[in-house]
């Protein structure tokens, strides 16, 4: 046999053990060190490495490295040199006898393996995409011959598998990093959203108790039903549920069932295809579809007709919807939170609410007690609202309720609950002439439920709109200040506001004034 032909013959004695060594592990480091052991005498290489190209991070990542003396050190990753191009590797393996002829590789290895002088390099590509390389190197020039190159060429497919496994591991790790980063970002968003909720919600003792319950089930997907009289804070609690849930970054879709006429409920629920009816100019998604991946809040669920309840139940069971005029079944994935001031059990007994729907909704009911049963909440809520009013109206001094008013408030029944408290305080502050001794004016329409009603003068109970009240108040203040805005005896000082805030307030209310000349 001629010398040249003998070089083309692959060393069969080594081929099979090498393939077995490569395939012995899915861990690239283990495979490489095993195959290196099999090939090291034949190749007479000083070391070998595998690197892959990470497209996401645009870097060359060394995933495995081993050296003849058994020592290997992690090589990390490097950015591909921008101004240089890699050598084109034809016929699967490149035999480079002098690294200075391949400036790209020379640059890539300059930091981590500066002593490399020659190498056999297998290029791993898939459909025009470069995956990485497997390289056996020497610290001497002109180390490798054709027989060695042929052997590596015959192992190309096995090395390919090893490289793509390594690439997958890197991509998985990247994914994990991204998930981690995403979780971190979600935590940040959640914290800032919670801070926002905290800013607009008084952390009353009852609310803390409710929040603890909500947190307990926050990792589950159970539907929740929030019960309570009107104005007691059901929506506040629903917002908390959403913010504490796993779906907090998903959509939060609200539908007030009491505000939708029966004829439109299907359209709200299911949406429609373009052209489904005369007015259907464009396609519309229903609430179930819009809430996909997030939370659907059905407020006033007790107002749903029996027919609409059937349709809701079907969606909850089958988790698919079809738009009006459509044929396609669209899968929907949402968490349901419902609220009502009605007694659904009573309604079910009377046949006005479906038992099967109630059963589904009532897995985790949260009852918010009316304000009259939450004496411990009254003071923190009052403080919270008074502080909010101060910043809303730019009042610099603290707002203090009269002692008598506080007593009346504690005895009052608050039929309109927290909403009534909020409105009552706003009205009282706006009509008060002494912020250090504010007399609370209770709701005249409340039906004489509290003792306070008797002490409020009828004239005040004939309530005007807030705007009109404010207008009258500021006109009176201006009159008392003889039209002066600033200064110690000016209207701003009298109303405890900054002069600029007062001017813009007067502007908004359309209060015109002229400075009145002091009488001589
Ligand atoms: N803990 C709280 N802190 C601050 N404001 C609150 C709190 N609870 C309720 N409120 C306020 O009271 C008002 C009524 O609350 P909310 O709308 O949540 O009540 P609701 O029970 O959903 O009422 P409805 O049955 O009429 O829909 C809102 O302005 C809300 O901001």
TrEMBL record:
GO terms for molecular function: ATP binding; DNA binding. Residues 200-430 form the Sigma-54 factor interaction domain. Coiled coil: none annotated. SUPFAM superfamilies: GAF domain-like, Homeodomain-like, P-loop containing nucleoside triphosphate hydrolases. InterPro entries: AAA+_ATPase, AAA_lid_NorR, GAF, GAF-like_dom_sf, Homeodomain-like_sf, P-loop_NTPase, Sigma_54_int, Sigma_54_int_dom_CS. It comes from the Bacteria. GO terms for biological process: regulation of DNA-templated transcription. Keywords: ATP-binding, DNA-binding, Nucleotide-binding, Transcription, Transcription regulation. This is Sigma-54 interaction domain protein.
